[in-house]
Design goal:
Blueprint (H helix, E strand, L loop, with lengths): L45 H26 L1 H7 L8 H16 L1 H13 L4 H20 L8 H33 L5 E6 L2 E6 L8 E4 L8 E6 L2 E4 L1 H4 L5 E3 L4 E2 L4 E2 L4 E7 L5 H14 L3 H30 L4 H14 L3 H20 L2 E3 L2 H5 L6 E4 L1 H5 E12 L6 H12 L5 H12 L8 E6 L3 E6 L2 E6 L1 H6 L14 E8 L2 E12 L1 H12 L3 E5 L4 H11 L3 E3 L4 H13 L4 E5 L5 H6 L2 E4 L13 E3 L4 H37 L11 H20 L9
Parallel strand pairs: 11-18, 11-20, 18-19, 20-21, 21-22
Antiparallel strand pairs: 1-2, 1-3, 3-9, 4-7, 4-9, 5-6, 5-8, 10-22, 12-17, 13-14, 14-15, 15-16, 16-17
Amino acid sequence: MDNHDEHEKKKTDHSKMDHSKMDMSKKDHSKMDHDSIPMGKEGHDHHQMMIADFKKRFWVTLVLTIPILVFSPMIQTFFGYEFLLPGNSYVLFGLGTIVYFYGGWPFLKGFWSEIKSGSPGMMTLISMAISVAYFYSSATVFGLKGVDFFWELATLIAVMLIGHWIEMKSVLGASKALQLLVSMMPAEAHRVTDNNVEDIKLEDLLKDDVMLVKPGEKVPADGIIIEGSSYLNESMLTGESKPVKKDKQDKVIGGSVNGNGSLKVKVEHTGKDSYLNKVITMVEEAQKTKSKMQNLSDKAAKWLTYIALLIGFGTLTVWLLLGFPFVFALERMVTVMVIACPHALGLAIPLVVAISTAVSAQNGLLIRNRTAFEESRKISVLLFDKTGTLTKGDFGVTRIESVDKSFSTEEILRLSSALEQSSEHPIAIGILKKVKEDNITIPTLQNFKAITGKGVEANVEGKDIKIVSPGFLKDEKINIPEDAFSDAAETVVFVLVDGKLAGYIALADEIRPESADAIKIFKKNNIKVLMATGDNEQTAKAVSEKLGLDGYFAEVLPEEKVKIVKDLQAKGEFVAMTGDGVNDAPALAQANVGIAVGSGTDVAAETADIILVNSNPQDIANLILFGKATYNKMIQNLLWATGYNVVAIPLAAGVLYTSGFVLGPAIGAVFMSLSTIIVAVNAQLLKRKIGMK
């Protein structure tokens, strides 16, 4: 009897968690504070505004760069023409000044922010490079002996601006999935009052209001159907691709799309308490949480900045000591600083984090612990709870037996229904379904309480009624009837009246058709699959053999699951535990990766690292494979970003000068921007990996 004692699942108040601002890259590229926006509206357009700003600055800079190139003496010498204006150097100075302050402003501003925070990085390197170029060139206009650098300055800023513009458009794709979640709620709802229907703003909808959901409309809030039936599309919320049939008393999730039926729904959760808002909060929390990989990336970017500054000034010094002109040495230094910008490195991990977390949420995988998700690739043993995961959790009563002549089978069922009427557990639902079929009136109860890990009890019509597992009977030295268990995969619960066994109820739970396919995927990936269930030995054995599991543990209490996890870990296994997030909390906390399954609209599984909205075991397979794909993308991006710098910095410093190869700042900027764009595009490719087999 899996977790049968948990009749009233705790609903954790996720609204206590502040909706955080999402920072996808080190430059504060994308912030969404949807606390200040009504549901149904997209997040702040901060990111879009920044893209538009970079775009505008790029075009203005490009327009100014053309005359700078045309009037530059160095370019004229290179192409063999002469076209000097009166006061040519002052014209270049004027145009260069506009380019430096207008086009270079985002980098100068970023430099100041980095210095104030004591974390010099990409913006520091770019701003130093363009500032050295600008102030040296300006000095040559006003008397310093040398050649101006304005054409390099202008092309460098133009390339950096277009690189950032393109890269930020790619970054925006990472936030679109989350913005899509935010925008899924309709702006209005149809509230039903005294058979009248009025259209109200979504924020005016209150708990216990009745709302009308017309065919084809989005459901405005979480609730319970009180009239009507329909098929609802929940794919964007739970990852369930097929429309789900919903009837009276079924729960619906705000943001899902109604099919052809008209529904009246009683509101349960609105605003911050809604399922969708909890998902958004979890996604944002996960995106801002740094894992080991991101900390490694941050350290690498920080050290790269210091190394670039050291190599940059070292390059200037070495070329000057070798007797080369100051302009040449300066160009080498500027190129090194541009090439070494740790932009790609700083973006490598945050982009993957943002994309993987948002895309996972759209597929029913809610990540709370980034490190656990990334380490899911190490899982060697997967310990499953049975009911509702490997099996459908859709119990049907197969047998009711009385062992006390004082109680008929109907009376045993009637008394049992009193204890089960408040529960959402699959066993309770199965018993109540049978009661409804037989038109039995459910009696009232008093003093309901759970018997930890073993069942429930309450007073019904003056009698002390207990519904318990086989383990409870063993502990109380009560003999279990010989014919209680059949060879079939049945779950049996025992009914005690005033401490004496009155009878038992057997229920069958159908194995999910997806379970067998999921287990094949696990085994293909060298993951052992075990099952730990509170059910009896016969049932556990039947399910294990049918699915081809590597082993099982029967009649296990929640606290005993912790010992199973510890024993596996002691043998060197990397263990993932699946459970309902409440009863299995100790085991979920002990496991290397805790996966809460079967949570449905209750996403408040505080001890789990990852929450699966559906109970489908194939979602766990998707989780593990997507975790591997995410980790691989991070490694690819880190290797590209660092490998690029290892090769490009020596070239920028001029190590191949004697071979006739000299890398200019503008070309260096092209390569730097290209590196960043490759990292961004590679991260976007992660979206293709979800759901792979």
